[in-house]
Amino acid sequence: MDRANPSRRDFLARAAAGALAFGASPILARRAAASAASAAAPAPFLVVVNLIGGNDGLNTIVPTHLGRYYALRPNLALPATSLPLLSGGFRLHPALTKLKGVWDAGELHVVHKVGYPQGNGSHFTSSDIYSYGARDLETNRRDGRGWLGRFTDAHCASPANPLGAVVVGLGRTPDVNAKAVPPLLLRDPDTLDLLPDPQFAADHALRVAAVQRMLGRGAGEDEVRRVLTTAHSLAADFRPRLAGWRSPAAYPSTHLGQGLRVVSQLLHGSFGTRIFVTGFSGFDTHAGQLVQHAALLEQLDGALGSFRTDLVSKGLWSKCVVVVISEFGRRNGENGSGGTDHGYGNAFLVMGGAVRGARMTGTLTDADLGDESAPFAYDFREIYAHVLERHLGLDAAPVFPEPFQRSGEITLV
Known about the structure:
A hairpin with a 2-residue loop joins strand 3 and strand 4. The strands form 2 sheets. Strands 1, 5, 6, 7, 8, 9, 10, 11 and 12 form a 9-stranded mixed sheet that branches. The longest helix is centred in the last third of the chain and has 25 residues, at 289-313. This protein is α/β, with parallel strands linked by helices. It has 13 helices and 12 strands. 48% of the residues are buried. The chain has one domain (8-391). The chain is 37% helix and 14% strand. It has helices at residues 8-20, 31-39, 67-72, 97-104, 123-132, 137-143, 147-155, 204-216, 222-242, 255-269, 289-313, 366-369, 380-391; strands at residues 45-52, 61-63, 85-87, 90-92, 108-115, 165-168, 184-186, 275-281, 320-325, 346-351, 359-361, 378-379.
């Protein structure tokens, strides 16, 4: 090909590559549908917050009534007198002051011993199981789709869901792999733009106008034209839909705080999103856990507290369910480095205006702490499926096609 005189097809192909660099999703080609959706009341939605690395559930929801907890953790056990009481002998980590208020308001539900059958202590394997939403990774890797990708393929192809799922600040993980309608990966809507040619930045506006004229004449192969049309529609439509966003609560400058701020902005834009996924890392606390874990939970508390205040003020909290997950729990006993190693069953937090709160599903006993790790009792997919079916009003079968154990005890909403 003559690079000094590129063809129109080559020009469009290179323009498409630039457009794809900011993560345009084919769903957003439906601008008219998105505009129509913005006029309607927001539908119920789910926010998944991932505590990456394996959060220590025992020092998050603390079983201060169990003598074995103190025997196993002579240096890491938290004193009961300094912790706010939740239910029975379970108390909350002292960094979670705002979440204690959510519990008192009847909007926080704790599920103990969450995991999956035959728990795996590898970060990579366990994270993939959560990403694919399946225990049989070999079969599901052949299919290639993650649980969020199966969700968008099954439930977001209709014009009623122009932007059905968004992942904020986590990059590309297997969760988002889809066949038809992949979720949007987003870091910060303020930086969303068509990428200019760095060698000819001054010509950016002319370049955009030229591509739009060519698209208007039907130029380019179908796939290239579809990608470009999507990208230009998104860039033109995205920021105006976010204009006027305000929050009565200042979001923390932490990674999670800014991620939840973006979720709030997208809710303001009324894109019809049903699932948001965000989170932050640092929870692999093999050493020096006491101080480190307190700082991590303080970040979680501050971000979720601001998010709740913001959504309550806008009348959106009643439509919201937040599920706080982690790929596995930690061992019951502390190690020799002032930390805890990889475990299995874990405590998950579920909160929102739609949640049946101030309740716990399951419990922990001294016998549970007699094992190396807390056992598995509730499959994480049962929590997702319950929220999809009861809160979002959607079929969970296409999202989690692999059979899994349902306890029948999960009643979160």
